[in-house]
Amino acid sequence: MDKINGKIFRGMLESGCNNLNNLRKEVDALNVFPVPDGDTGTNMNLTFKNGVAEVRKAGSENLTIVAKTLSRGLLMGARGNSGVILSQIFRGFYQSVGEQEEMDVKAFSEAMLNGAKLAYKAVMRPVEGTILTVVRESTDYANVFVEKGDIQTFEEYIDVLCKEAKESLDRTPELLPILKEARVVDSGGSGLVAVFDGFKAYLQGNPITETDGVVGSQKEELTKSGYCTELILKLSEQGTHLYKEDKFRSSLSKLGENITLITKDDIVKVRCNTMTPGEVLNLGQRFGDFIKLKVENMQEEQTPSIIEEEVEEVQEEKEYGIISVAAGEGLKQLFTEYRSDIVVSGGQTMNPSTEDFVEAINKVNAKHIFIFPNNSNIVMAAKQAASVIDGKDVQVIETVSIPQGLSACIAFNPDDSVEDNKANMLEAISNVKTGQVTFAIKDTTVDGREIKEGDYMGIFNKDIILTNRNKVDATCELITQMMDEDSEIITLICGEDATEEEIKKVQAYIEDNFDADVDIQEGKQPVYSFIIGIE
């Protein structure tokens, strides 16, 4: 095959998307840190799926339209740094397609080169040994053969591209010592190789389909064939006494996945994916009467959520708006109390997409909007969203932890200028030290430290500085190592798995050993038992 058109390119995309989807867990497992939040494969998969879904929705087989639609879909669906980089690769590809209805091998190779170039530009401090290296080396190598005239067909080009991408991926541990120590290759590069291999399979006449033989999790099955069940419930007098949000959430988790639960006074709003919607409705009915109900097959086109169907009063444009990112009902409430107009749901285990930020920005009626990503893997998506917004001044304050985000909120003054606010917030976050406690999901070695599955790890900024089999001991030891003579305030944010007894033990340890103000907050965040901010 010496040329491809829009129809063939669509087929390549479908096959690449399916291959990435099938291998996403393997890509997730390549996470260097053994924390239960390895999500590179998930982020890349959701990003690419969004792009391909938009291509399907457009229904066109025109190459320009397919490339443009893919680029837009990837841009808006991009999650995590790996997803943003993937979107930039195919944004550069689209720029090279232009108005071509067909592409020969040379044009395709040039488009891939441009994709690699644009991906590098999107990253402020590119790191070799990552997806950036894999896309650059593979496209450069394949293009050499194109320029020499040694490659004439797409099958030959993709074969060379895939082989070099795999070899480049295998070399990533030599470029990043942390990969070599953990005995893994780069996860983002692995995701890109999966996409390229999917392209190759299609051109060879064996397109990849979503694997039926792999048993997916209940969450994945529900996404395909369950029922999106929503209800708004008014608690009865008896239900008000019986209803406990944590217990209700626990009961829901046994019936479904992707749960949203909002409780405000005597109103309870629920959304979840389940195979047994009747049981969800029966559970809700124990506590009161339904105000609204909706049950929809997940395979059908979804209508707007009843939970989000609230009439919003048109408010006058204000000077400032704040958007924060957090996971956990306690943290969301805390950021709201600290002047955040919108708290985008997300964090370590589920990074919000560019589109999530765009929607949030559009909901805030303000001249100047500050975004606090509160996670290093979310910053790029937030910046990408800011770049596509017109008519509003949107600035991303690069908070990379929850404590930094809270300090930025506190430093904000609605009476100050944009410049003064930005300076004050940046100064505030520079004075914050962040610690986190979570458990290891596998045996590994990081920075010379042997870590065993089940160990609790104390993470200071981005470094694992200690391990302990006991959660409380790990937390107390981490706080000790973080404290210095200038430390005055300790904020202890308690996760959803932290018990009241454990919290009291940590609090008592702080009060007995340090002369500092202690602020205890119930963040109810997943993954991290305790998040510690010290100022």
Please describe the structure with a list of short key phrases separated by commas or semicolons:
Serine Threonine Protein Phosphatase 5, Tetratricopeptide repeat; 535 residues; Alpha-Beta Plaits; 4 domains; six-stranded mixed sheet; Rossmann fold; alpha+beta
Major sheet details? 6 strands, mixed
Strand neighbour order, sheet with most strands? 15-14-11-18-16-17
Shape: globular
Q: How many whole angstroms does the radius of gyration measure?
A: 25 Å
The CATH architecture of the largest domain would be Alpha Horseshoe
Instruction: State the fourth-level CATH superfamily of the largest domain.
Output: DhaL domain
**What's the total count of β strands?**
18
Fold-level CATH name of the largest domain: Serine Threonine Protein Phosphatase 5, Tetratricopeptide repeat
- Going by helix content, strand content and strand pairing, the class is alpha+beta
Mean pLDDT: 89
Q: In total, how many domains does the architecture comprise? A: 4
Termini separation: 63 Å
The CATH class name of the largest domain reads Mainly Alpha
